[in-house]
Design brief:
895 residues; 7 strands; 65% helix; nucleotide-binding; coiled coil; TPR_rpt; ATP-binding
Length: 895
């Protein structure tokens, strides 16, 4: 490496950065070539002081030379607890340039979802879904990017970005392929763990080129920089010692050479021994000593600036330190002269940034850590009061409140509780959790303690169910949580146990609490919740006479309140799973509605009962041949969650159950589309959850119905569709679908074993609905050749249960099964009767299959033609092939 800098006048940290700058230039050339260019992502990684910030500054310069719009932001070590801090600052140039009506127009439906997180809209009345807010931010940036092309986004010190920003950045990076934006990220290695580290890894993985690790200066580059700074007469031993004491760290090298100039040290071998002492004064304890040398007022100013972290104005620091304005202004000048603070780079400055910033994050960290502990916490307390007095709200003050020393301050507890509510309203549950956990350390008053634990449990329900269990159990064991709040806490605890795959404990928890109450609304709600969790439990036999007790309770319900409506839904679902008369199923479900619609307080985004109850309602309609009602319910769920910005598990379930309705109707293409989207969303929430199984099982079932056997098998292998199964009921029935899949790929013995396991599971649960768990039909077909007597018994049992249930679909399917086992005229008659029933059924796929089977049995080209048309309209490619083969055989025979 020569001693020549990379370009005339280039900043010192850019020496030996030719490859990195070339990568930036190449990415900018691609970006600016055409509006249709795909997005780019560069990630630069390096230890502190290796020139990451300088590289981003050079990226800005190169981008602006090409006419690009450049937005930038950086993380801060003391600002990681501020949700959406970095993404807000990143988008601030666009947001401040838009009038409110323009912002609403550009963000469209996402305005009410992403707007509160960005600070440009008031949050709604209920807590926001974090995944929905993340998706809203992605959509917001995508829309703004189309307006601002060519756009470059620079994120510095990403390792210190708040977790909410990192979640957005990871999601945005994955979707850059169809958006013309260049994103450049700089970070240190290590520094973060947990979800933040996972998000940063996802960002790096999304980059087209590997993450670039910056290296320290070589001795040659250090010598070149030394001579360029202090003069060409610097001798080789002196230059070598500069490299030795700094380790080639660009920041330390630049600071050391500045000290050499300030001290007028002769750059010769005879002076090289003084370099180590000079280097110590530029960092760590030496920096602190240098700061103290400027005087107590300048030190207090620097401390206040470090506490603020961002938005460092002279006036704000003066308020925090109680200095007079003139005194504060003089301190700012001294600190700028000493290269501790500086005015922001005009190219990157924006409104609201404040008047000052630290020259380098290393300096900010050293200054912050040098503040005596007691004084630092006191300064955070004063800063929190200043923020509160300015009217910015408890959430804005919370990052300072988190640092205040616990002191039995009930007002602080209330501020933190309010901050938590504000964080939840914008979709930042982790920030809410930090506030509530800090409030517990204050500690709260005894009459507030249990409610605080309850609020903490509600805040962590979706993100940390295991932690929620302990918090809510503790709250329930303490005095102070009574009435409706206690009942709701028990419900939340049971939900957390359910999400943590502890369904049996969820049932027992609700049962025990119900026993504590006398007859009334609270007891009725708890009993309904108990029946709900028992109803979705797939792991063991129900309690003796459970269905009988539930039916008796439901008979007394008029649907006058939501507890009674919940019991009616549960009764309908229970009757449906047991294969009782479908008309009674529908009658119970209809009584739970108000004028055919969900009652107030029982909607998809209402939290008093949970989504499981409404999924039971829609499923009961779906399997009782009321598919129009099922589709309307699940489509309403999809619309409601999309509008509200709930794009996590709730939206995944809505897609999964709408896919179930489409699959039952025979709209197989539509079913496959929404089920694939459900599986995509479910993977973001986490594999292994019941909602993940619903999406995966539904997709495999639909692919088998379409005749795409190889794709169904590949999907099953890719997503882990195999035992062990979850402890909750999954629709469609997992073992029945898995057994059918194994038969389809030729693994007959394994398929029979799986279907026999389905038979046993259904017997334990009393699940005698032959449509819900159609194991008998497939098992009879698999055993027809090797054990015809057993196959006949299975078919007869399926027909008996189908007639008990009474839907056209159930009876038609049972007749199809019987026809496949029969021969001669009986086969034709049974196939004809199956067509009669399934023609009246809303399930068009089964109707198509029955037509084709009847056409083959009767040798009727007309029936095969009608079956072929139905199969094509359903998207059932396998059935269509079978019909065409039958037609070809008949036509060949006739000729």
């Amino acid at each position: 490496m020569t001693e020549v800098p990379p370009a005339a006048g280039a900043p010192a940290p850019l020496w030996e950065r030719d490859e990195e700058i070339a990568a930036v230039v190449e990415a900018l050339d691609v970006l600016c070539a055409d509006r249709s260019s795909s997005g780019g992502l560069l990630v630069f990684r390096g230890e502190a002081g290796l020139g990451k910030t300088a590289l981003l500054a050079e990226t800005r310069r190169l981008a602006e030379e090409r006419g690009c719009t450049v937005w930038s932001a950086r993380g801060g070590e003391t600002l990681r607890s501020v949700p959406f801090n970095v993404v807000r600052r990143l988008l601030q140039p666009a947001l401040v340039s838009l009038l409110p009506e323009e912002a609403r127009e550009y963000l469209g439906d996402w305005y009410d979802i992403a707007g509160p997180a960005l600070g440009i809209a008031d949050p709604g009345g209920r807590r926001a879904d974090p995944q929905g807010v993340c998706d809203g931010l992605v959509a917001a940036v995508r829309r703004l990017a189309r307006r601002e092309w060519p756009l470059v986004l620079l994120v510095d010190d990403a390792h210190w970005a708040d977790q909410e920003t990192l979640r957005w950045l990871a999601a945005f990076a994955e979707r850059l392929h169809d958006l013309s934006v260049l994103v450049v990220v700089a970070r240190r290695p290590g520094e973060v763990t947990g979800d933040s580290a996972r998000h940063l890894d996802a960002v790096a993985a999304a980059a087209a080129r590997p993450e670039t690790t910056l290296s320290a200066f070589t001795p040659d580059a250090t010598a070149g920089l030394t001579r360029a700074t202090v003069g060409p007469h610097a001798d080789a031993p002196f230059c070598r010692e500069v490299w030795t004491v700094t380790g080639g760290n660009p920041y330390e090298t630049v600071e050391l050479l500045a000290k050499v100039q300030d001290s007028e040290l002769e750059p010769a071998e005879s002076s090289a021994g003084e370099l180590r002492a000079l280097n110590r004064s530029a960092r760590g304890g030496g920096l602190v000593a240098r700061l103290e040398g400027l005087g107590i007022d300048a030190t207090r100013f620097a401390w206040a600036a470090a506490v603020l972290g961002t938005g460092i104005s002279v006036n704000l620091v003066a308020r925090l330190t109680t200095m007079r304005p003139g005194q504060a202004l003089r301190c700012a000048g001294s600190l700028c002269t000493a290269r501790i603070l500086t005015a922001p780079d005009p190219a990157g400055a924006r409104a609201g940034d404040g008047d000052l910033e630290f020259v380098h994050p290393l300096i900010a960290t050293a200054v912050y850590n040098s503040i005596p502990d007691a004084l630092r916490t006191a300064m955070h307390g004063i800063a929190a009061q200043i923020v509160t007095d300015s009217g910015r709200g408890a959430a804005a003050a919370s990052r300072h409140l988190l640092q205040v020393h616990p002191d039995d301050d009930w007002e602080l507890v209330e501020q933190l509780r309010e901050a938590a509510r504000e964080h939840l309203a914008v979709g930042a549950p982790d920030a809410a959790r930090r506030c509530l956990e800090r409030a517990l350390r204050e500690p709260p008053r005894p009459d507030v303690h249990a409610r605080l634990l309850y609020e903490l449990g509600c805040a962590t329900l979706l993100t940390a169910p295991a932690r929620t269990i302990g918090q809510l159990r503790t709250a329930l064991a303490m005095p102070g949580l009574d009435g409706p709040a206690r009942v709701d806490a028990v419900f939340r605890l049971s939900q957390a146990l359910l999400h943590n795959d502890q369904l049996e404990q969820a049932v027992r928890t609700v049962e025990a609490e119900a026993a504590r109450h006398e007859e009334g609304p609270a007891r009725l709600r708890l009993r309904a919740v108990q029946y709900m969790w028992e109803g979705v439990h797939a792991g063991e036999a129900p309690a003796p006479r459970r269905s009988e007790r539930l039916a008796g309770l439901a008979r007394t319900c008029t649907g006058r309140d939501n507890s009674e409506r919940a019991l009616l839904i549960l009764r309908g679902f229970d009757a449906m799973t047991h294969g009782e008369n479908a008309e009674e199923v529908v009658e119970a479900c209809d009584r739970a509605l108000v004028n055919g619609r969900l009652a107030p307080g029982l909607g998809w985004t209402d939290t008093e009962w949970g989504v499981e109850l409404l999924m039971m309602l829609g499923s009961s309609y779906a399997y009782a041949d009321r598919l129009d009602r099922a589709e309307n319910l699940f489509a309403e769920a999809l619309r409601t969650y999309t509008t509200a910005g709930w794009s996590g598990g709730h939206l995944a379930l809505a897609h999964a159950f709408l896919g179930l309705a489409f699959r039952r109707q025979g709209r197989l293409r539509d079913a496959e589309t929404v089920l694939r989207e459900s599986l995509r969303l479910a993977e973001r929430v986490g594999r292994g959850l019941p909602l993940y199984w619903s999406a995966m099982c539904g997709l495999v079932d639909t692919l088998l119905a379409r005749g795409h056997v190889r794709e169904a098998w590949t999907t099953a292998e890719q997503y882990g569709f195999a035992p062990p199964y979850p402890s909750t009921i999954v629709l469609p029935d997992t073992r029945s679908v898995r057994g059918r899949l194994l038969l389809a790929v030729g693994r007959t013995e394994d398929g029979v074993n799986e279907l026999e396991a389905a038979e046993k599971a259904a017997a334990v649960r009393g699940g005698h609905n032959p449509v819900l768990a159609p194991w008998a039909v497939d098992l009879a077909g698999a055993l027809a050749a090797q054990d015809p007597a057993r196959a006949a018994r299975l078919a007869a049992d399926a027909r008996r249960r189908a007639e008990r249930f009474g839907t056209d679909t159930a009876i038609g399917e049972a007749l199809r099964c019987a026809a496949r086992l029969a021969t001669g005229r009986r086969k034709v008659d049974l196939a004809a009767r199956a067509v009669t029933y399934l023609e009246a059924s809303p399930c068009q796929y089964e109707h198509a299959a029955a037509r084709i089977e009847y056409g083959l049995a009767a040798g009727s080209t007309g029936e095969l033609d009608r079956g072929l048309a139905l199969a094509r309209s359903c998207g059932a490619d396998g059935l269509a092939r079978r019909a065409k083969q039958g037609l070809a055989a008949l036509e060949g025979g006739l000729s």
